[in-house]
Amino acid sequence: MTTVFAERPHFFEGQFLGAEDLEILLAYLREQSARHLLGAHTQGVVAGIDLASRTDPSGGLQYFLTPGVAIDGYGRPIVVLAPTQLDAGLFAVQPTGLVNVWIRYDETSAGGVRRGFEVCDSVDAFARVTESFSIVVGLKSTIAQREAGVAVADVTFGDAREALGNDLPGQPIACDGSVAAQLFPPSGDPDLWLVPVGRVPWTQGAPGSFGAPTETSEKQSLLFRRQAGVVAESVIAANGLLRLRARWTDRVAGKTVDQLCEAHAVQEKDLVKCGDRVRPLEPIWLDEHARFRGDARLFGTRVEWQEQLGTDYLGGGVPLAMRRRPEKNEQNGADLQVLLGKRTLGPNRLVIGAAQAKGDPCQIEFDFTPGVVVQDDAKVGVGTEATVLAHPLTIRTTGDNGDAVGLQAADGTIAWQINFGPGKAGLNFTQTDPKLSNFFIGNNGNVGIGTLTPQAKLDVQQTAAPQGNALGANKWLQLGSGGDAGRVWVQYGAQLAPLMVLSDLDDPPQIQFQQIGNAQEDAPQFLSWIGHARKLSSDIAMMGGNVGIGTVSINRSLHVEGSDVHSGGGGGGFSFANRNTGTFVETPANGERWVWYARDGVARLWSSGDKVFVTPQGRLGVGTDAPAEALDVRGNVKLGGAGNYFALGALANWRVIAGTVPEAGNAANSGWTSSHAITGSYTVSFPVAFDATPIVVVTLVDPLNDDNTICVRGVGQAGFTVLIKDITGGGTTAQDSAFNFVALGPRS
């Protein structure tokens, strides 16, 4: 197998050179140039050769190729030296729509020799070959219509994309179709190779016409076009900077070319002196958007987000970055760190949220809605938007129920959730239905278990309480493991267990209240309890000390302050025992037990029969349950300290006012007043008048030998007048004297 890949001429002194020798030299140079162009580059348009349009003086639309350079698949340069108009005649047979435009290498023999200098053979002799190009239009859907194929060793490939990988495992293809190691076509054989340039709108007709470019046609043209590339394992930045950016810079009104280009040039701020050499801070610049179709891996480095001018390090700004922690973490693992810098004015934040693209697709912007916020002080917010976070975790709820947290089961369904409940009335813990509740804390501080509307500080509802399960299951609240270790639970239902149990194996069960004092927990100094009085009984007993209601100064077994002690129902009443006996007597024959109770609206004092009665009108009856007056006694009434007086008995309901008026006259007592204006004349008044004119009786209070007379006149409901005279010696002289009076009149 030969390893020869090229033959170049070798010249020496005195050598006779013919045309063949010079052709070999040209072939060698052209072949090495072609291998270089296809080895370190790929075929396609290198620069220029763009499709441009303009309107001619008659108003018609023209398309032309701009100057530029391209390389075809045989390494032949194609050069357009001047703008070249596309001939509409080329498109005459093309259908209406976008038409592909191609360019290909072409050459023509030129410079024939003068007559008499021809050679003696049948081939025309030419001294020159002109290299040119041709414009080709049309679909060219098959590979044979686009290229003549390449020959590698002894194999000819109709599709150059298959040549490079033919001998490799799996026979991969090279989509660029640039084969540097091919056997190039001989000189004078311009084999076909079409380079895609673009697409133009065309309307078929007689004659046809070009269409104005649109955004769609321009995109389709760019997709069809093929640009040349570079093939290399490494790209070395000559001055320490490798920069990838779009070639074109758009013009801006009011800006000169120098200003536009200067804006994209390297600035002094972009350079840094490291050691003894000044170099760009970052050796690689991507001035445009970048796309990764594979992984992007950083080895011990970080990604930074600088402000627009890139002056975070120079102007005291806050760099934002992400990195892998260089060393192991405290648990011997690895950390991915998001660096939020140090707070200056406000908090630095990592914000995760939803975004909607908007604006010019060449400069995409976003309408951003914050979702999750992480502040530089490790405080986290969910849905908190622009709020400065003050707590380790802050959640802004959503929806009518104030949804906050959802906990998924293994199958992805929501098993538990936390919200504010319907109407956002509190903090709610529930399962699959957000409108129900397992545990609820109301905004008013009430706590509900099984209810969204607790009516008390603790309101427990919706608990199962089957029969025959009094102890153990379906408990609301349990403390301890039961038995002598202690157990507390509150239970509701048709069980035999009481509502609340503090159990230390008491039988019957009791709620105990213990104060240790100077004793031990299992033998307290002070002990009281509330519980069942007997086994298999629903009676409740309270033992161990006095009970106070509304007071802490308890002076009796039951001491109530500030309210009534009430008993109702069919057996309502207040029962108390005779202190002498002290025991409970069901039927007290001798007053061993008394009961205050009421029936038919009358309060009654009972002991083997009703004894005293009080009516709703405030009448007290002794011996009668229908007293006719405020005090109605059926029997005698005894008065006095020794009970040696009987009360006055009268058939009429009298009001009695009595008194003694002194000689001076001015006096007052219960129900009356007196005044004395002239000698022998007194006036007695009743501040509360009688309902009718009373009967008035007066008597003098004379010295033993006095002989005065007294008379009453002007008796009325409000009072009367008294006149007193001395009758000694038959005279009638007015004289002052003390007197007694009694006034009797009807009672209201």
* Principal-axis shape: rod-shaped
Mean pLDDT: 85
Radius of gyration: 62 Å
Structural class: mainly beta
Helix content: under 10%
- Biggest sheet strand order reads 24-25-26-27-28-29
Our count of helices gives 3
Distance between the termini: 154 Å
Q: Could you give the count of β-strands?
A: 53
Sheet with the most strands, sense and barrel status:
6 strands, mixed
Strand percent estimate: 35-45%
Low-pLDDT segments, ≥5 res: 465-474, 490-499
Describe this entry's structure for a reader:
The structure is a single chain. By secondary structure, the chain is mainly beta. It is built from three helices and 53 strands. Mean pLDDT is 85; it is low at 465-474 and 490-499.
List keywords for this structure.
5% helix; 748 residues; mainly beta
